[in-house]
Amino acid sequence: MMRIPGYFSIFLLFLTTSLSAQQRKEFYLNKGWKFAKDDFQQATANDFNDKNWEQVVVPHDWAIKGPFDRNNDLQVVKIVQNGEKVASEKTGRTGGLPYIGIGWYRLDLPLQQLKSGERVFLKFDGAMSNAQVFVNGKEATHWPYGYNAFHAEVTDLLKQGTTNKLAVRLENKEQSSRWYPGAGLYRNVHLIITQDVHIPIWGTYLTTPSVRKELASVRLQTKIAGLKEGEKANIKLETDILDANGKVVISKATSDNLERASIDQHFLLKNPQLWSPESPVLYKAVSKLYKDGVLKDTYETTFGIRTVMFNAENGFTLNGVKRKFQGVCNHHDLGPLGAAENEAALRRRLLMLKDMGADAIRTAHNMPSPELVKLCDELGIMLIVESFDEWKAPKMKNGYNQLFDQWVEKDLINMIHANRNSPSVILWSIGNEVPDQGTPNGVEIAARLQDICHREDPTRLVTVGMDKIDAVLKNGFAAVLDLPGFNYKPSRYAEAYKVLPQGFILGSETASTVSSRGVYKFPVKTGPDLIYPDNQSSSYDMEHCAWSQTPDDEFIAQDKLDYTIGEFVWTGFDYLGEPAPYESHWPSHSSYFGIIDLAGIPKDRYYLYRSRWNTKEKTLHLLPHWTWPGREGEITPVFCYTNYPAAELFVNGKSMGVKKKDDSDLFGRNRLMWNEVKYEPGNIKVVALDAAGNPVEERVISTAGKPYKIILEADRKMLKADGKDLGFITVTIVDANGNICPHADNEILANVKGSVSFKTIANGDPTNLQLFHEPHMKVFSGKLVITVQSSELKGKGELTVSAKGLASAKIDFKIGD
Ligand code: GAL
Hints:
Helix content is about 10%, strand content about 35%.
């Protein structure tokens, strides 16, 4: 390899964060980017004039600002996996956003003088899509799959004494996705500078081959790069293992006259603290690499110690304790932020899921960002890391089928190498509902992809979310997998269990119940594909799609069948695109499946799952709201989601009777239901009773008067002065007595001052075409969420929210360390 001699005199610009100081230098390339959406043949040239291009900060999603349009990616398709027999026009399937097309990004690489022998790498955590990366006009690398991380060395492309230009071309094709994929450099880009001899990106592999209460063995395999062909070097690797308090618990120095490119180190840790969702203890291996006595690199590997077992005797055990996944599937978009990755937004989401009692996420249907995996390690959330929605057989004309032959192995390798040290990663998923399940070579492909995973990481099992149950039970596809996962098949688990060899079954995708926050339909119905003129679905949580179920159907299977190992609900959060059952009913353009809406406000269903999954805290939740002018005297059922055994309902002080959980009834098992209540204005009150029948807690919902004022509630009021942190403020319209006005649709206006800027606004209404980045929007069912972003200046910030005719409200923020 050619080395660049001497020194560079290149400007140090836009360096945002240094991740590690010694030997290895790593920077996020966030600022200073120029962007334009179009194709520019000459944009790779250093002297190309990009003066008029937009200045953007990466992560950046070029399509999220819209505008929404039914003609954006209009798809005339037959969705076979949904049982459709004829093609029909699908609007809003990818969010109605302008994500298709070509976009270019350009940046002056912020490189200082490089010392002799230093090497320079670029790492992309994901680029949507068909990325071509150029440095000084020459292609450095390309990576078509938009969800995967990739990296390239660019040392040989750099020039001395001048600006080094990075240019990235991205292209999203039409009909390439079944949901909103995002567009552009939507995840972080890193600049990494190492010495000649160094530990490469994703260069360590840490496993814990045996774990007992008193002792855990830790194996660290470290790759060494940069030695010349046949060079015998005096190499030393010193590794300290640090516990969760940062204390060194064991160290090891390994010397080697290296001819191999890797060093193996083994450690025995006494009394290891085990990682679990309940106690996410993390250790760190800090490795120092010396060549001929000179320190060349320092590399950190964060890890956790836990045992994961799947077998016919006990199903799923973590650290020897049997459990069932209480999981959700999530797409990667962050609602109004689009696909642009943001750690504060992810953290808020994960905390909401944890409070619900969820302990796992399936990254549907693609690789997660490093930030998501890191947060799951830290907060204690198990992950199924998924890779593909398609293999060879197409779902979408321009889907992954176009890349499969050439890229599948490379994509799996990067996914595994980037994530295999994380304790939160419990399983690999090689696919979701891939049509190949039913093709003659499907079994062979599954076996091949599974083998690649085993080769790259022998410590984890592999699954697929399967939907073609008849085919996969017959043709061996389900039998060949380490772990059979079924999507929407609770009624067939028993049959699958009988014929499959594994002895356990995962509900890899469940429920797909649809609802709109705060919207209730009468008479209350259960059933598939219920369509209403307002394009909303009912929050009585009994409506679903033709292929899917209510939460209760899966609950029964999970409760009654010992060999089931849990479920992953579709979905934790609403997402952009796939607005079933309104996929042909513009202006619907975001999903109805979420337990939590697109703005991040829990729907009623949140409390149904919380009442089952969060066993540490009590849940007592009443629905619907109690403001129904015009429904006086009409049947208006009242449901209560609770983990108390029984409760009594009162309407304006009159008892409607005590209800207990009723095991003989599909819905009554998990819900207390007073189905005969007639609406009269006033209030409803539920009084929870303990096992002995004593009243212990109550909830009241009152009929609301006219909208009177605005209430603000922030998830956090102290933000970091890093220009990235976000505060989420829930805006609620209430009457003069503080009751939520459930029909309010006031247009509200957001105004910011000081060290915060306005970022987004969202109300969770899947039909709303107002733009997320303009500081005004109608509330939906009385609520919406505003996001503000910290600046890099410490100080104070404030948000004022106003609406015509209502008393306004203000909230203060501190921006600091
Ligand atoms: C599944 C599919 C998901 C989503 C879901 C909606 O079949 O795997 O991606 O489309 O249906 O119910």
